Protein: Eukaryotic translation initiation factor 5A
Amino acid sequence: MSDDENQFEQGNAGSSHTYTESAGSLKKGGYVMLKGHPCKITDVSTSKAGKHGHAKASIVGKDIFTNKTYEDSAPTSHNIDVPFVTKKEYTLMDVQGDGFVILLNEDGSTKEDLKLPETEDDFKLVQEIRDQFDAGKDLLISVLSAMGEEKIVGCREAQDK
Structure:
């Protein structure tokens, strides 16, 4: 047996972007995968079991990246995918002319792969970030992450420590 045979690929073994949860336990304000999109739940309703069927949960949610509305239904006893969603704050260092931002991590490293949101729904947020940054204010930028994607979702003025 040669050494080459014992080489394994290194990767994200066992890691996933989602976990499963019973459709009957989903709540408004939580997150769920609807039609393959990570969504924030805006409405959940359950119907009673019929003569031959299961109780069903009807779920309505908005895509957390595009704000598009999606709907789906599933028996309350069945499992449904729920995305792992994280929110992290970074210090804003610079806003580039092309819309990319330079953010500072807590560990001192920089993050330069995020662009200001470009959807119509985010116009006010982008304007607020640009105006406050141009006014010389120190800003903390909130970034939502799910399914390998990231989006700037908020900003606030940094408090002096």
Summary: Residues 141 and 155 are 4 Å apart (CA to CA). The chain has one helix and eleven strands.
